Amino acid sequence: MNAARIVFTIVSFVSAQGTRLNDVILGLQKATVFFENEYDRFTLDGVIGFQMLQAHLEDTLKGWSLSGPEAASQFKKVHDLVRRLDFTAAKAIEAVKVTDPVYFNGFQTVLQVDFWSFNPQWIKTDIKLVYPEVRETECFGENISDRCITQLLGTWENNGTSCLESDLCKRMMTTLNCQGYSLSHQLLYFIIVERKKCSNVVGAQHMDSQASLIVQGYEKIFCSNMLQRNLQIEENDYPLAEQDLFLEYVMLCGQAGFSEFFQAQWLDHILAWQQPGGCFGESGQKYTKHKRVKRRSNNLEGGCLDHTTSVAVGALGGYLRFYGTSRP
Fold first, then answer.
1. Where are the chain's structural domains?
2. pLDDT in tens, 93-116
3. How many whole angstroms from its chain centre is CA 296?
4. What percent helix, strand, coil does the chain show, rounded to 5?
5. How many whole angstroms separate alpha carbon 264 and alpha carbon 183?
6. For residue 220, what are the CA distances in angstroms to 33, 132, 146, 191?
7. DSSP per-residue string spanning 36-72
8. How far is 196 from 152, CA to CA, in rounded Å?
9. This model's pTM is above 0.70
10. Where are the beta strands (DSSP E) in the chain?
11. CB 267 within 8 A of CB 131
């Protein structure tokens, strides 16, 4: 390839990357307006997605690598989103504290933006880790999952001990062949193990390199299977009843640093699912055995769901960080 073609290829790639970044920023601006208007109707689960989004935005600004003609404008827009989200999230958190105090006390730790740190490098899944078959039903329900996560957080009781793990939680969170939301809750559990440095959960005294490798090994197992499931959803033309799950997988595996979840064609569909008012999800969608009704999810203006909106913005925040920063 001669020098002229190399330059043209690089310029074309940078241009396409800049265009996609503009699309993501526009989608996030619309979602932020919706959040500003509806913040007091969001459940705690709904607010978490916007806090994860803010973490993505702040990390993107720290690692900003773009230098094209629109880079300065894009940087300013992202900075403005951080400011607006910081203001609105504070009001939303106060509202949740009043409307759902027990759940708030259990999960207030994950409402802190700085809780959601990121791995310094992008990583890949491994197709060899995909389960040959999966269970037909969920491995466990949300109530027991919440119990296990609050034991890690130390909020399972007043002044509770953090990084507590029962035999039930250990067995449940490491069970293979799970599908659906059980699979994403298993991943979330180990993300929290990593963020809280709960080395005892993996049988270590300190969160050293060996303990981290064990945690990351479980994360790779789960995200390898979540990627496979999303590819199946794509092959089936993104059934409406599975879009929430699809988005949750992108959000959580993106949070864990798996770059394969930021596929360009997926982004096109995610942005197409956004309603004109900025939200995601339709209250009239039908639920199948693979799509369980989220216990805490509110119907919002425009026939949208706060949980679907939450996981969508969390996913889009990952795309923004993927396109806006330079990481190997």
1. 19-324
2. 999 999 999 999 999 999 999 999
3. 17
4. 65, 0, 30
5. 24
6. 35, 16, 22, 11
7. HHHGGG--HHHHHHHHHHHHHHHHHHHTB---STTHH
8. 8
9. yes
10. 299-300, 304-305
11. no
